[in-house]
Design goal:
Helix content: 25-40%
Structural class: alpha/beta
CATH class: Alpha Beta
Shape: globular
CATH topology: Glutaredoxin
Strand order of the largest sheet: 1-3-2-4-5
CATH superfamily: Glutaredoxin
Distance between the termini: 23 Å
């Protein structure tokens, strides 16, 4: 299951040292709902290796502004606290998984 990442717990999650996959989404966003099951599956498959989480743009203004999120879904791939890749818009699970594999290499 994907973590719920918020303005309050983001720094704590990044401080764990694992790469982070952060899905910016909203309840009302159709494409966000489309990739939601893939994000959840990737969270299960990469548990222990990567922190996979979801951040609601409606509830977390600070993170949304910090990363300049203008379109959702946007999935950020974060390593050592830095964004190293991103996917804007809905993408197939294999595209997201390839980006996770690159994050781990």
């Amino acid at each position: 299951m994907a973590l719920e990442i918020t303005d309050k717990n983001y720094e704590e999650i990044v401080a764990q040292g694992k790469p982070v996959v952060l899905d910016f989404w909203a309840e009302w966003c159709g494409p966000c709902k489309k990739i939601g099951p893939d994000i959840a599956a990737l969270a299960e498959e990469y548990a222990g290796k990567v922190n996979v989480g979801k951040c609601s743009v409606d509830d977390n203004d600070e993170l949304t502004a910090k990363f300049g999120i203008r379109n959702i879904p946007t999935v950020l791939f974060i390593k050592d606290g830095q964004v190293v890749d991103k996917q804007v818009g809905a993408a197939p699970k294999n595209v997201l998984e390839d980006k996770i594999k690159a994050l781990l290499s």
